[in-house]
């Protein structure tokens, strides 16, 4: 009998321990295609669960409000130096708790309530914190949004420029959560400069691709780069703000004491490990494989008659419009889940359906790439998706069970990082 991976947890709280074990099994046996999810390494998992959890460390290295920070200061400094080296930035702050708080810090640093801010509209692929109405950023600031062209699903940079010059935002965001194409950071920088705006590149989704050289970097162009540390970067659930030295004081002050108290030191340690891993040649190979897999999967889906927003992908993400298949995105997503294929339902540009019951699904290749799947496996993945969507349209539940078994059989040969072998 195999020893339990968390013996103290099992002894103290067997109910919770059983849920963790169930989640390990679920992650091992299902094909995880949500583009914002991934597998962290065993080393990142271990660093995230250390006694660093026990420390309060308000302030920054060498400038703490608590004593006993000799080791914590070195942990945070290590993460900062690794971030600066990996992304080639002048300043990095690794303390934000997650992506949304990181973006809030940007507002606090550069804008006042009521100021105009500009970002991509949420239904077009943007993020809530880019000034969308239901977010605090859309309530406290005057948000204006740009989108994509209806005919090709691509950003119209001339239209973005016209809107920016008309509205004169204090902050201009580029990046989002459902953008399958390469972002032209240089074009956004030119627009921001002409409009007098601070350019913020939110690269939460593509940070790992940038670190691995599989996507252009915003660092030469953006005033601030905001990112989560999970997703394609394969770190713990945290965030970083990187910027030019001239903005360092404003960013640091906005994070602490502006928005939060003590950093989560165990997360900082996990970030440091992930940044170290991302500096290795194997990570570069992984990042390029993520893109190669996404392109191969997109091609296989197109061959099977699926409609893809913008006609394909340049990165890790594919946005599918299921209107022509006669299946709403939510119905398809839940059927795929029962088939062992984990996706999320998602709006597509100009979607006539409501956000909680949209026309599309969003998929990506980071997790399957981390397991070692390659382009040769993508036709099978596309076939499973096609069969599951067809089964959803017909209400054919047994067909979903067959697919789930096939998925589990393949994944058994490709164990996930950080998980016990199923």
TrEMBL record:
Q: Which residues carry this modification: N6-(pyridoxal phosphate)lysine?
A: 231
List the InterPro entries hit by this protein, alphabetically: PyrdxlP-dep_Trfase, PyrdxlP-dep_Trfase_major, PyrdxlP-dep_Trfase_small, Ser_HO-MeTrfase, Ser_HO-MeTrfase-like, Ser_HO-MeTrfase_PLP_BS, SHMT-like_dom
Catalysed reaction per UniProt? (6R)-5,10-methylene-5,6,7,8-tetrahydrofolate + glycine + H2O = (6S)-5,6,7,8-tetrahydrofolate + L-serine
Q: Which residues form a coiled coil?
A: none
Q: Name one GO molecular function term.
A: glycine hydroxymethyltransferase activity
Which Pfam families has this protein been placed in?
Answer: SHMT
Keyword hit for Transferase: yes
Which part of the chain is the Serine hydroxymethyltransferase-like domain? 11-385
Give, as one word, the top-level EC class.
transferase
Keyword Cytoplasm assigned:
yes
Location in the cell: Cytoplasm
Q: What is its main location?
A: cytoplasm
Tell me which residues are marked as the site Plays an important role in substrate specificity: 230
Keyword vocabulary terms for this entry: Amino-acid biosynthesis, Cytoplasm, One-carbon metabolism, Pyridoxal phosphate, Transferase
Leader sequence segment: none
Record-listed (6S)-5,6,7,8-tetrahydrofolate binding positions: 122, 126-128, 245
Pathway per the UniProt entry: One-carbon metabolism; tetrahydrofolate interconversion; Amino-acid biosynthesis; glycine biosynthesis; glycine from L-serine: step 1/1
- Give the enzyme's EC designation: 2.1.2.1
Q: Which cofactor does it need?
A: pyridoxal 5'-phosphate
Q: Which family does it belong to?
A: Belongs to the SHMT family.
On assembly, the entry states: Homodimer.
Q: What does this protein do?
A: Catalyzes the reversible interconversion of serine and glycine with tetrahydrofolate (THF) serving as the one-carbon carrier. This reaction serves as the major source of one-carbon groups required for the biosynthesis of purines, thymidylate, methionine, and other important biomolecules. Also exhibits THF-independent aldolase activity toward beta-hydroxyamino acids, producing glycine and aldehydes, via a retro-aldol mechanism.
Protein name, UniProt field: Serine hydroxymethyltransferase
Organism, by scientific name, is Streptomyces racemochromogenes
Q: Which gene encodes it?
A: glyA
């Amino acid at each position: 009998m195999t020893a339990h991976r968390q013996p103290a947890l099992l002894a103290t709280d067997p109910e919770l321990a059983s849920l963790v074990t169930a989640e390990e099994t679920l992650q091992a046996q299902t094909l995880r295609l949500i583009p914002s999810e991934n597998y962290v390494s065993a080393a990142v998992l271990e660093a995230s669960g250390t006694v660093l959890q026990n420390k309060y460390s308000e302030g920054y290295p060498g400038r703490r409000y608590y004593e006993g920070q000799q080791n914590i200061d070195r942990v945070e400094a290590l993460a900062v130096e690794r971030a600066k080296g990996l992304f080639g930035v002048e300043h990095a702050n690794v303390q934000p708790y997650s992506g949304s708080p990181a973006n809030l810090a940007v507002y606090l640093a550069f804008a006042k309530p009521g100021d105009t801010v500009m970002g991509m509209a949420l239904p077009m692929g943007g993020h809530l914190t880019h000034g969308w109405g239901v977010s605090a950023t859309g309530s406290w600031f005057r948000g204006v949004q740009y989108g994509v062209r209806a005919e090709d699903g691509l950003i119209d940079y001339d239209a973005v420029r016209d809107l920016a010059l008309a509205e004169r935002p204090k902050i201009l965001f580029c990046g989002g959560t459902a953008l399958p194409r390469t972002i032209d950071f240089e074009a956004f920088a030119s627009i921001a400069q002409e409009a007098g705006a601070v350019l913020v590149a939110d690269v939460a989704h593509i940070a790992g691709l940038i670190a691995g050289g599989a996507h252009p970097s915003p660092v030469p162009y953006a005033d601030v780069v905001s990112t989560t540390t999970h997703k394609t970067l394969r770190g713990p659930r945290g965030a970083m703000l990187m910027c030019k030295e001239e903005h360092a004081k404003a960013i640091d002050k906005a994070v602490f004491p502006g928005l939060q108290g003590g950093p989560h030191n165990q997360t900082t340690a996990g970030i440091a490990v992930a940044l170290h891993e991302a500096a290795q040649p194997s990570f570069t190979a992984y990042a390029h494989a993520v893109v190669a897999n996404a392109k191969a999967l997109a091609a296989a889906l197109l061959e099977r008659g699926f409609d893809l927003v913008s006609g394909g992908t340049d990165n890790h993400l594919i946005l599918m419009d299921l209107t022509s298949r006669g299946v709403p995105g939510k119905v398809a997503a839940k059927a795929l889940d029962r088939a062992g294929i984990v996706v999320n339902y998602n709006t597509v540009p100009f979607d006539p359906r409501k956000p909680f019951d949209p026309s599309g699904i969003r998929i990506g290749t980071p997790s399957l790439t981390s397991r070692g799947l390659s382009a040769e496996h993508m036709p099978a993945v596309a076939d499973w998706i096609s069969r599951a969507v067809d089964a959803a349209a017909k209400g054919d539940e047994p067909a979903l069970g067959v697919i789930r078994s096939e998925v589990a059989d393949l994944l058994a040969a490709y164990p996930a990082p950080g998980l016990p072998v199923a």
